[in-house]
Amino acid sequence: MTKxxxxxxxxxxxxxxxxxxxxxKRLPNIESFPCSNPIDAFQILQKEKIDLIFLDIEMPLMSGxxxxxxxxxxxxxxITTAYRxxxxxxxxxxxxDYLLKPISFPRFMKAFEKVLKHLQRNLPPxxxxxxxxxxxxxxxxxxxxxxxxxxxxxxxxxxxxxKVITPGNFWISYQTLTSITEKLPEDRFMRIHRSFTxxxxxVSVVDGTNVEIxxxxxxISRDLRPEVVKRIYGNNTSS
Length: 239
Known about the structure:
By secondary structure, this protein is an alpha/beta fold. The chain has helices at residues 14-25, 38-47, 64-69, 87-92, 105-121, 177-183, 225-233, and strands at residues 5-10, 30-35, 52-56, 76-81, 97-100, 135-140, 143-148, 154-158, 161-166, 169-173, 189-193, 196-199, 205-207, 210-213, 216-219. Strand 3, helix 3 and strand 4 (76-81) form a beta-alpha-beta unit.
């Protein structure tokens, strides 16, 4: 089952909330909970199992750091603020990262990748059979990362880079979509668009010229649609 990462955005500035929400919408398997004051945030935390908080500092009623002090076992926290002065205090409260507004998307992604690695370290140990799975290695930030082929949902082209999506995680690597597609088993993967290669068995919905995988709508090239439909449904379904 795909892991949905639940993110709480606490900021009294609507524009600041919109920036974080728009960034999160670019990522798969994310559910965001925006709120403009600590009272609403408390209510959300009581109802939802939040994995990550984007926390502003300067707010009416209660500062972000005071809000953080009220929680005995807070989720992972990223500080978002226009002030540099709170960095030390934020890290003293175990904030994983500190984003200075205005927040650029590359800086946001660097912090988010740090979150994913942090959460990954806290997962239960992998099954002993994991080592027997087919896998490939991706060069990510100067390191070689082992990825089980069976876990790959789809691969997206980002010009000179690719983004490999698995349940609850993703990796960005410097190579072409053609290169990675050639490394994947052709009986289970198919390039359906100039920007996407998908795992055929991970498709949950076919809707016109799109397929859906883990909540992500992925376009199908018009000339490939008959073959894509045939691969997904078999010869018994017409295009």
